[in-house]
Amino acid sequence: MKSNRKERRSTSKKTAPKKQKRPMLLDVFSPDGFTIRLDDQALFKNIDEAWAYFRKWKNRYKKQGYYSSSYGRIELKYLAEECTVVEVEDEENHLC
Q: Cα separation of 46 and 85, whole Å?
């Protein structure tokens, strides 16, 4: 005879403790592959902070009207397209 009683299954699964997620940090690299940050500037906490710093950095080239890359001159209106924003794990392990 079949029993109408359903077996209870344990739904509790043992899982590994969750790792604390580190905050995302960003850096901006020039067309030549170097960070645009000065020595005392920390990594950026969000994309808005990174692009705000990029605009300040770009203004340093305003007088000459272009960025001089090892690949040639880049007009300032195209400079953002040539730079790269990257995610980095932390300040200590990030090489500039």
A: 11
pTM: 0.69
Is 96 part of any domain?
A: no
pLDDT digits (tens, 9 = 90+) for 43-81: 999 999 999 999 999 999 999 999 999 999 999 999 999
Residue 65 maps to a domain: yes
> Has residue 81 been placed in a domain?
yes
Q: Decide: helix, strand or coil at residue 77.
A: helix
Nearest-CA neighbor of 57 among 32, 38, 34, 78?
38
Nearest 5 degrees, angle CA 55-CA 68-CA 77? 40
